[in-house]
Amino acid sequence: MRRAALYTLMLGASIAVGACTSMGSGSGYSTQGNEAVNFSWKSDDGSGTSGQMSATLASGKIFSGDYLEITHQIATAELDPVWNEWDRGGSDLFTEASIPDFGSGTQYSGRVLAKLRSGDGQRMTCRFHLNVPSQGMAGGGQGRCDVNGGSVDAVFPRT
Q1: Which of the four CATH numbers 2.120.10, 2.170.120, 2.40.30, 2.40.128 does domain 22-156 have?
Q2: Which of 21, 127, 128, 158 is packed most tightly, with the most Cβ within 10 A?
Q3: Could you give the CA distance from residue 141 to residue 41 in angstroms, rounded to a whole number?
Q4: b/e per residue 99-117 (b: at least 16 CB within 10 A)
Q5: How far apart are CA 39 and CA 41, in angstroms?
Q6: What's the pLDDT tens digit per position in 65-102?
Q7: What mean pLDDT comes out for the span 52-77?
Q8: 76, 101 Cβ separation under 8 angstroms
């Protein structure tokens, strides 16, 4: 009985840890020579808006580094046009109008930047546009990476 409870606890903990990690892959082609490029990404932040990415060229050269979706923290007042109708003067306790909740939220730009580097120090700079910005890279997207005087067009499916 005790062993079954321990296994259940361990399984629940591993599921909880796994729920915070998302990963996926993408593909692309270099504009020079039309060679295939494979991408992979992994995020441990729970939102998929930042993490690690790698790109493997047809030659076998691997570029790796960090990616980040540009986000902005905003106050609830910036999100809700109903605030404009709220009378900020004296309040009447018996009216049906309620005072809006104060808080904050995240505004997702849908733009991702990635700075990748190969083992020999070459750089690859990537810019992606996400299909579903609130899901981070898991929402899929497309973009372009600049490397060695050329570029790579990339596509990431939804995961």
Answers
A1: 2.40.128
A2: 128
A3: 12
A4: eeeeeeeeebebbbebebe
A5: 7
A6: 999 999 988 776 554 555 455 555 555 555 555 555 66
A7: 91
A8: yes
